[in-house]
Amino acid sequence: MSNQHFTTTILVDQTPGEAFDAITNVRGWWSEEIEGGTEKLNDEFNYHYKDVHRRTMRLIEVVPEKKVTWLCLDNYFNFTEDKSEWKGNKISFEISRQDNKTQVRFTQLGLVPEYECYDICENAWTSYVTQSLRSLITTGKGQPNKKEN
Questions:
Q1: Contacts of 63 (CB under 8 A, 6+ apart)
Q2: What is the DSSP string of the chain?
Q3: Which domains, and CATH codes, for the chain?
Q4: How many angstroms separate the CA atoms of 13 and 38, rounded?
Q5: How does pLDDT run along the chain (149 residues), one tens digit per residue?
Q6: DSSP secondary structure string, 53-68?
Q7: Is residue 109 within 8 Å of residue 61, measured between CB atoms?
Q8: Distance separating alpha carbons of residues 86 and 144, to the nearest angstrom
Q9: Alpha-carbon torsion 57, 45, 47, 59, what sign?
């Protein structure tokens, strides 16, 4: 496999603390269907989107105002043959200052072009990070997946 892990970066005017608070408010930018803790070291949470995607994550690194890293413990896609995709992947949010702005660098270590889900996942993460997370940081309101009835 290549080393071309998926990454995307945003720059915002808010502080690293505001970016960190938004990142750990996963229900505010990714999905209202999140169950479990999303803020502290060793918190675990479950995500699901209809019958298409389910996943369990653990926070393995939490450095306020600097970094949050999730480990994918379990994952299911209904559209891939390889059911191991994402298992063991790390998702990292690195926060830094860049010319009076705050940079958030999102990387999914393990999400590479060889994955069956790469195109779909790349598009989804790009939207969640560059639109919904950015909006949560800058306006206090993201565009997460809504809770199912």
A1: none
A2: --S--EEEEEEESS-HHHHHHHHH-HHHHTBTT-EE--SSTT-EEEEEETTTEEEEEEEEEEETTTEEEEEEEEEEETT-S-TTTTTT-EEEEEEEEETTEEEEEEEEET--TTSTTHHHHHHHHHHIIIIIIHHHHHHS---PBPPP-
A3: 6-139 (3.30.530.20)
A4: 24
A5: 446 899 999 999 999 999 999 999 999 999 999 999 999 999 999 998 888 888 999 999 999 999 999 999 998 888 888 877 889 999 999 999 999 999 999 999 999 998 898 999 999 999 999 999 999 999 999 999 998 77
A6: EEEEEEEEEEETTTEE
A7: no
A8: 21
A9: negative
Residue with tokens 């949470």, as numbered in its chain = 45
44: its two tokens: 């675990």
